[in-house]
Amino acid sequence: MKRTIQLKVDRLVALSKQSDSSVKVVRKENEVITDSLSNSIRSKRDAEVFRRELTSAFKLAKK
Amino acid sequence: MTKLDLDSTYDIRYVSPDLSTFSFISILKNGKQVELVIQITKHRDPHLSGVYNLAFGPLDLKGEIDDKVVLKHSDLGKVFSTIMLCAITFLDNIEPGISIGIDGSNDVRAYLYHRMFVSNYKKLAELITTVGVDWYVRLLRNGTDIERDADSYPLFKPRPEPFDLNRASIDLYRYYMFSLNE
């Protein structure tokens, strides 16, 4: 990672450590995600198949 | 063209201790300011460990992120650069091998994401690997019908593939995912 970007990342991590954990910026946490990916995965098997395919896709993309 | 430059981002006003929530101010074309909140949430399915969703937008009256609203940002590249910086901060500090997905919840957003990934592919490839996800439905052996659920609706399933740069902008992915390069 470029040094300037790593510095920005480090600064955000430092900022997070000063944050008050009781502050809730988003009033309702999305505990149940309703994005299109979640909606299309209906079973344990679907999730396992997707996970395997995702790992393969990332490996292929990194080549 | 939405040009990303992670060296040029908006100042972050808030970061949660677990690095899952960020906020910053964007300036709109009409001169008004809007606070944008980024929230990164773990997928509910225990079998999708290491897969997170990123949502962003202004808060609505209920205090929830409105990820459907269309805003005219004065510097869209800077908005996306800030969002990518936050996502990279999360990926770099939570655990190795995790990935973040963003939902092309409507055509406008999907087109924006697609253009952003295509236009900045070389620059982003130094940091992240990108995958696109399509939905597909299986043609049954009889060759005339497709796989359906109990209510007879087509049974769409997600299929991830390495991001295809040559794919036309009208043929958008439904979901965009990325992970940090090792």
Task: Tell me what you see in this structure.
The complex is a heterodimer of chains A (63) and B (182). By secondary structure, chain A is mainly α. Chain A has a domain at 39-63. Chain A is 63% helix and 0% strand. Chain A has helices spanning 3-18, 36-40, 44-62. The relative contact order of chain A is 0.06. By secondary structure, chain B is an alpha+beta fold. Chain B has one domain (12-180). Chain B contains three helices and eight strands; from the N terminus they run ββββαβααβββ. An eight-stranded mixed β-sheet of chain B has the order 1-2-3-4-5-8-6-7, covered by helices on one side. In chain B, strand 4 (51-57), helix 1 and strand 5 (99-103) form a beta-alpha-beta unit. The longest helix of chain B is centred in the middle third of the chain and has 18 residues, at 76-93. Chain B is globular. The mean pLDDT of chain B is 90. At the A-B interface, helix 1, helix 2 and helix 3 of A face strand 1, strand 2, strand 3, strand 4 and helix 1 of B.
Largest sheet of chain A: none
Output the strand order for the largest sheet of chain B. Answer: 1-2-3-4-5-8-6-7
Order of helices and strands of chain B: EEEEHEHHEEE
Helix content of chain B: 10-25%
DSSP summary: helix tally of chain B: 3
Helix share bin of chain A = 55-70%
Structural class of chain A: mainly alpha
Class by alpha and beta content of chain B: alpha+beta
Question: What is the multimeric organization of the chains shown?
Answer: heterodimer
Mean pLDDT score of chain A, rounded? 83
Biggest protein-protein interface? A-B, 44 and 62 residues
Number of beta strands of chain B: 8
> How many domain modules of chain B?
1
Q: What's the helix count of chain A?
A: 3
Shape, principal axes of CA atoms of chain A: flat
